[in-house]
Design brief:
There is one protein chain. This protein has about 400 residues and is α/β, with parallel strands linked by helices. The chain folds into two domains: about 5-185 and about 300-390, Aminopeptidase, CATH 3.40.630; about 190-300, Alpha-Beta Plaits, CATH 3.30.70.360. It is built from eleven helices and 16 strands. α6 packs antiparallel against α8.
Length: about 400
């Protein structure tokens, strides 16, 4: 039996065990940087399997290690562990038991799959060379991101990887399918907080006021010029505002208005220039109307770039494992991922794992009804094991 067939057989053998792990994590979700029980649960599993690990990175992060003690490359595999503040609306025997906390982005699948990879590669360690690092990462869903902090705390200090691989569930792909995108794949993501200050009062006496509601309205429209008139037409850029708080009434103009939004793009230089334009436009627009603005831009995740050579090779290897018709070419996404910090420092690839039923569109990520076809986990742990084995060579 060749190594590929061994991996497929082991994926099937360990499938039920890994499903139980996934369901336990799904039932007991924890928010970003609060994954204490999840971390302890993973450590207990690693202890039972006899896997060496280090823990305590950003409090809950774990680095498990399989060292073959044979010369070769070092590959890091990453899974995120945190859940989202969403109330689950699924009729599942293993639905979340926590109010307003749910694994609605598939991180339970990522973690369980990576544990499956640990078990498979440990079984096959005599067929391997080099080192495999397994990164169980906290806080992907919240700035500043667990990836950045784990790197700053030296998770790879003594074991620099030659490449880093991650997979992320995708409801747009059927179970058994995966998707790759070479080069720029996911956008940078920044949070924008603006307070527009004026002078409130009775809405029937506008001549006595400096209306922050009007200023905020004008400011939102003016800021859109950054996208329509300042960015290059071919450069993906998104500026969206999802929260406006003007705490007045039908006949009361408040003293201030709060605006919150997000800015995303695919170019780091343009990203920094756009930040300065936002500040200039906010100050000038409000000043011209007699008011002022305070603007805070919280810089989030950078652009995620998949190494073209590794992505191409991983795509070909996936065709060998799953079949040529099961590997898709993806478009760019304006969503963000803190795996970008790994991609900014190491040759990296993040690919998408299909989780939908073959004839039924999947439920969107970050929604209360998000579901996963658990058969996808078998493909997830098998393919990542195959990629690790092949790329170590």
């Amino acid at each position: 039996m060749n190594i590929k067939e061994k991996i497929k057989k082991l994926s099937q053998t360990y499938f039920e065990e890994i499903i139980e792990i996934r369901r336990h994590i799904h039932t007991n979700p924890e928010l970003s940087f609060e994954e204490y029980n999840t971390s302890e649960y993973i450590c207990n599993i690693l202890d039972k399997w006899g896997i060496f690990y280090e823990k305590g990175f950003v409090n809950t992060g774990i680095l498990a290690i399989i060292d073959t003690h044979k010369p070769g490359k070092t590959i890091a595999l990453r899974a995120d562990m945190d859940a989202l503040p969403i109330q689950e609306n699924n009729d599942l025997s293993f639905k979340s038991i926590k109010s307003n906390v749910m694994h609605a982005c598939g991180h339970d699948v990522h973690t369980a799959s990576l544990l499956g990879v640990v078990k498979i590669l440990n079984e096959l360690r005599n067929d391997l060379s080099g080192k495999i690092l397994f990164v169980f990462q906290p806080g992907e869903e919240r700035i500043p991101g667990g990836a950045k902090q784990m790197l700053e705390e030296g998770v790879f200090k003594e074991r620099e990887p030659d490449l880093v691989i991650a997979q992320h569930v995708c409801p747009d792909l059927a179970t058994g399918e995966v998707g790759f995108k070479q080069g720029q794949y996911m956008a940078s993501s920044d949070e924008i907080y603006i307070t527009v200050k004026g002078k409130g009062g009775h809405a029937a006496l506008p001549e006595r006021l400096i209306d922050p509601v009007l200023m905020a309205s004008q400011l939102i429209v003016s800021l859109q010029q950054i996208v329509s008139r300042n960015s290059k037409p071919g450069l993906p850029t998104v500026l969206s505002f999802g929260k406006i708080i003007a705490n007045g009434a039908v006949n009361i103009i408040p003293d201030k208005v709060k605006i919150e939004g997000t800015f995303r793009t695919m170019d780091e230089d343009w990203r920094n220039k756009a930040h300065e334009l936002m500040k200039t436009i906010a100050n000038q627009t409000t000043a011209s109307m007699g008011g002022s603005a305070e603007i805070e831009i919280r810089k989030g995740y950078p652009v995620l770039v998949n190494d073209p050579e590794i992505s191409s090779e991983a795509s070909k290897l996936s065709e060998e494992y799953l079949g040529p018709d099961k590997v898709k070419t993806l478009d760019i996404r304006m969503t963000a991922e803190d795996f970008a910090y790994f991609s900014q420092n190491y040759s990296s690839v993040l690919y998408r794992l299909g989780i939908a039923e073959s004839d039924i569109p999947g439920t969107a990520l970050h929604t209360s009804g998000f579901k996963v076809n658990e058969e996808s986990i078998k493909h997830g742990m098998g393919l990542m094991s195959w990629l690790s084995y092949s790329l170590l060579k």
